[in-house]
Amino acid sequence: MSPTPDTTPAPSADASVRSSGPLFNLGQIVATPGALALLARHGNGPEHFLSRHVCGDWGDVPREDALANNAALGDDTRILSSYWVQGDGQDQREKLWLITDAGHRSGITVTTLLCPSEY
Q1: How far apart are CA 98 and CA 119, in angstroms?
Q2: pLDDT tens for residues 16-61?
Q3: Which residues contact 82 (CB under 8 A, 6 or more apart)?
Q4: Which of 82, 46, 84, 85 is nearest to 64 (CA)?
């Protein structure tokens, strides 16, 4: 029996793994009041950020966190993404985090949208 090939995309220069499809299960999706207010202030919905997160674009995280996220795809640990949110024509931008808890391989997990101050 030959080994199963690894179909996980290779990391980019910033260590994100970008795929055209979902890499893991988001589970139940929840958002904190702060995250909902942030998205509303900038006229954004969560879909764009959820899509980036589940497809391996970890956003603005340190390289070591991106590498930990890549490892989490195989070992079922927490995945953290961080994105700047800015509305059209707005100068101010704010940080939004998405965290998918351990258990994403089994589908028994939660993905939370939150502001860093709410962690």
Answers
A1: 11
A2: 788 889 999 999 999 999 999 999 999 999 999 999 999 999 999 9
A3: 58, 59, 60, 61, 95, 96, 97, 98, 116
A4: 82
